[in-house]
Amino acid sequence: MTEVASSVVHEVLGPRTEDIDQPIIDYIINVLADEDFDFGVDGDGVFDALGELLVDSGCVSDFSECRSVCSRLCDKFGKHGLVKPKPTVRSLAAPVRMFDGMDEEKVPKKKVEEIDGPLLTERDKMKLERRKRKDERQREVDGLSLPLSYIVDVILTFKQDASGVLGAQYQRHLAEMEAVRAGMPVVCVTHNQDKGGSVVRDIHLENFNISVGGRDLIVEGELTLSFGRHYGLIGRNGTGKTTFLRHLALHAIDGIPKNCQILHVEQEVVGDDTTALQCVLNSDIERTQLLQEEARLLALQREHEVDGENEKSNGKLNGDVDKDAITQRLQEIYKRLELIDADSAEARAASILAGLSFSPEMQHKSTKTFSGGWRMRIALARALFIEPDLLLLDEPTNHLDLHAVLWLESYLLKWPKTLIVVSHAREFLNSVVTDIIHLHGQKLTMYKGNYDIFERTREEQLKNQQKAFEANERSRAHMQAFIDKFRYNAKRASLVQSRIKALDRMGTVDAIVNDPDYKFEFPTPDDRPGPPIISFSDASFGYPGGPTLFRNLNFGIDLDSRIAMVGPNGIGKSTILNLIAGELQPSSGTVFRSAKVRIAIFSQHHVDGLDLSSNPLLYMMRCFPGVPEQKLRAHLGSFGITGNLALQPMYTLSGGQKSRVAFAKITFKKPHLLLLDEPSNHLDLDAVEALIQGLVMFQGGILMDHIGAIAVPPPFIGATINHSQKHPRSGECRYDAILTLEHGDSVIHCLPINIMAHSSSCSAKGSGSVIPLISFLEEIQETALDSFGPKIYDPKYYVDLSLKYNLSITQNAFAKLPRTKDGRVPAKYLQAFIGEYFNGAGDDLVQHEPVDFVAEPQGFLPKVKHPEVRAWALQVHALWKNLSRKVSQRVKDQPELHTLLPLPKPCIIPGSRFREVYYWDSYWVIRGLLASKMHETAKAIVANLIYLIENHGFVFNGARAYYSNRSQPPLLSSMIHEIYKRTGDISWFVLPLMLWISDIGHLVLLGIHKDKETASKLPTAAEKEIFYHELASAAESGWDFSTRWMRNSSDLTTLATTSIIPVDLNAYILKMELDIASLAKATGEKNIAARFLEASEARQRAFRSVFWNEKMSQWLDCWVHERPTCEHIIIEALLKSGSEEAKSMAKDLAFRWIRTNYVAYKNTGEMHEKYNVEKCGDYGGGGEYVPQTGFGWTNGVVLALLEEFGWPKDEKLDCE
């Protein structure tokens, strides 16, 4: 029949068929060849079915010709016997009675019986219900009035096979989504026209249902959103979180106030010529329109001024526009612009974009030049700028670097309106949200508190529910057993009936339905190429016409590697992945790839590249033709894509489910190396945990790019690498690495994985002396984790242990400890070994009585008139005795047995739980000691720092050998300067002054002999000068000589730090230059003083040009927080400003700070690391350290402020 239909169509349409796309012709033929097709009278059915298509596709010229062609088609098909004849219809002359002519006795008398029970079976009802839903969905789609061009596109694109059906469904889905977006209410910045307008507060949603594609997502949902609360929406991938947010944004749920502005940040902004900054500003429609009108009116005014020079001017402008009317309207515009604070809008928009890592140059680039991830950031910036009544954020941290994530956390913490956020980042949720909405089992359940509190609360609820369920089941079983036993016993009939009634009245408790476990099972490669499988040798890369992204990169990857690559967005991480994969080639140097290695790359591109019109199984069958379906299903199942989910259209999957399909695709051929680019994006929290476990068990190499900080790996990286401390085959301790990228430089930073996951990091290649004991203590630390488990494991305890015997004896004893089959030392044996061969952690520091301590010093005390403050200040002063320590003589006699370095003088530890002395804390400790008139103790601290510099080239953080990374501001010169101002003694600091002055007149700073030795490798004086500047930047800034600041990790001369010092460290260096100039002047070194003064003036000019933004009226890259040190810096800056108003402000801040310290001490009996600057007397939540006896810098700041400002007798003491 199809052949006949094809012949007829070509005959009737003639040569025109040659110009028509074949899929359209095929569609026409298939329609007409359908045996159930109704041609109608004279081809009316053909016209109704195909008329519009025939005209739009060019088969006929107009509808008049179309009717003629349809008639001819009907005739031709009729001649071939393909048009079913219609039965002849004849009207009856009279009605016909069916029983006429029959005897009444023979007429059947059928009795109408009542039907007992339902007319339909349950199965029939379900079928009708499904049909009803299908019809409703069809009516919704029909209501979209899809244009014929859309239908033609579907026909052109897809054929009538299985994949074509899925494709057509996908195209229909796209059309539906487009219609949905078109129906989204416009959300923009609103300015209250009158103060009497209603204000949206709480939102109450009751008894609502949400379903998609016939699948119920939320049933009888109830939710109350209180104004100003921040909600975290959590639930597994595919439960409907994003769909729920879309319904809220569409106002598709009854109960949402009509005047409530709801903004769902889901789509990236459209790329066009608009700049990123202007794109954000354009969301303030009223401001934009007012400015446009202002520009137009000013142009008219200028025209009038030109016309005024002409004698023909009559006071009217083009089109008889009155100039006075223009002036009046401009005044109205200016008044309105002032009222809506239009002048500050640009600064606010720029500040938001800057927080999301847009540089000033990027803010003025057109949006079309940005990638999708950056355009998504612009959409987020628009939303934050608009400040809707209800802001909906779906995975806002995706594609953000750590700087942007931390900024967003801080910004949202102060968000004044209602917020709902979906995020897989646990710490982000803990920081931002006040409540949790849990979507589970088609229900929404509300929990107070952040995510951690939710986990604890839900765990307790589930335990209680299980107990109640078990008790209920026991009671029911007991009653049922009684009923069954005595049901037919007449004597006990009444008892049985009472039990039956009690059983009916007894409520039921739902059994706990646990979510199925997620899994990520990465296949083990069958073969193992020899190392290295990847090797970078002096590799550099830059795109043509662009800057060099990195230089002289040297590192290798093998099957045991676990490398984390961190750095801000756009720094070149994806480029390195492409170099490894062979998609790019280095500009210089080499990248070796083993010919046998199989590499799998996971990136957002691979997720976006999925065929959304297909389903997971069909997609895998296309990617791997010839592979049995069952094998593909099994592989999909190893990533959680099981059952019907494998047959579900891809566009209906959640983001996390799509990611798992992408993982399944890239790992099917059993790769040796995984290159993971932001692998946790879109995954829910349970899936992230499963991914971590899967990576831990993977028997191959991993290089993971996860956007994070340069100094501290994010928890995801830390967890992944920390879980792989021992190689699953050899059980040997391995070293892994962090590949750090910043500002065109890339370095490999090799760290022991067990140390790297904690704050006490140890660089295997750090500069300075690293004693052999450290490696052994790391092994003890790792063994302790395996033996004792993470709950009772203190990572820092073991590296602070000191040996009772020499290292070789202790190592031999350790090697003889009994072990289990998996290499673990039983806890009791390890505990006994540690007790026998080690001294306690911290035993190398012993208590010391300060020689210059007096009970009532005359430093701060004379100005403190209030008796209660005076008593408290003396208690704080007395803490110096508790915090005073000296290094044990054992450390000086046998330094090889200790990680603590043998300091020559006594010291002050930061707090009672500390086992070391720190560098930058010591400046504020010294300020407090000077206020306490403890000059000798202050000098001793500086003497210890100088000792470390002279013997090791820099200040080891904490004076512990494993703290080889220096990340502390340049305060040594300021310490010396403060002591000099109080004592006037210049004799003792002449030697320290020389540390800052090289014999060639350059600012070398610290470790000069070693520096000159290193510089001798450089061939020219110019290169040596550059090297000295790099050293100066790294050393006295407190930034370390870690390999992460080097272009080549093995060559100190490639140090590059001058371009990465932020404003706060530059401010410290400025103070250093001024202090050194003052010290040089005091010693008669006028030339040196002049040189440093000149340097300080140049730096101040640079501050103005680089860090100060006049338009924004703020310092860029300067963040102040609630630590005592920062408060003290602010107060001192105000005092030195020369303004009486600033001095008054400084005094007010000082009194506030002293008061909050006093109240907190009164309530807790402790001094704390930091305090809540918004709530008097509340010490800092989230501090790094638990409350303890004294906190060095806190004590020092309080005493220094009391010395400066005192405390009047009548000054109020308690919080207001």
UniProtKB/TrEMBL annotation:
InterPro entries: 6-hairpin_glycosidase_sf, 6hp_glycosidase-like_sf, AAA+_ATPase, ABC_tran_Xtn, ABC_transporter-like_ATP-bd, ABC_transporter-like_CS, ABCF, Glyco_hydro_37
EC number from the UniProt entry: 3.2.1.28
GO molecular function list: alpha,alpha-trehalase activity; ATP binding; ATP hydrolysis activity
Domain ABC transporter: 203-466, 534-768
PANTHER family noted in UniProt: ATP-BINDING CASSETTE SUB-FAMILY F MEMBER 3, ATP-BINDING TRANSPORT PROTEIN-RELATED
Entry similarity comment: Belongs to the glycosyl hydrolase 37 family.
The protein's name: alpha,alpha-trehalase
